[in-house]
Amino acid sequence: MKSIFVFTFILASVATSTIASPECPERPCEDFGCADEWDPVCATDGNGIYRTFGNSCEIDQYNCGLDTVRCFEMVSAGPCPGTSA
């Protein structure tokens, strides 16, 4: 009985780790046609990581290539504070 519980717990943990969160839905990667326009935006992955992107379209393009469930979301216009971009 105990081994069934452990197996079920491990199986649930693995399944949960491979399912995309609501913030990062699964979607096919495609050419987003992002313009080369420099209109910087600050985005975060919700885990304390901030990154400046050249424009808001580049966030979606970047997220599409991630192999994780944690996507970046725009938090403000302009470069992230403390970055040189």
The total beta strand count reads: 3
Average predicted local confidence, pLDDT: 73
Class per helix and strand makeup: alpha+beta
Low-confidence stretches: 3-22
Shape type: flat
Helix share bin: 25-40%
Strand order of the largest sheet: 2-1-3
Please write the string of helix (H) and strand (E) elements.
Answer: HEEHE
Number of distinct helices: 2
Q: Radius of gyration, Cα only, in angstroms?
A: 17 Å
Strand content: 15-25%
What's the end-to-end separation, in Å? 57 Å
Strand count, sense and closure of the main sheet? 3 strands, antiparallel
Any chance you could write out the topology, listing elements then pairs?
Blueprint: H1 2-18, E1 41-44, E2 50-53, H2 56-64, E3 73-77
Molecular structure report:
Mean pLDDT is 73; it is low at 3-22. With 85 residues, the protein is α+β, with helices and mostly antiparallel strands. The chain is built from two helices and three strands. Strands 2-1-3 form a three-stranded antiparallel sheet. It is flat.
List keywords for this structure.
single chain; 85 residues; alpha+beta; 3-stranded antiparallel sheet; 2 helices; 3 strands; 31% helix; 15% strand; flat; disordered N terminus
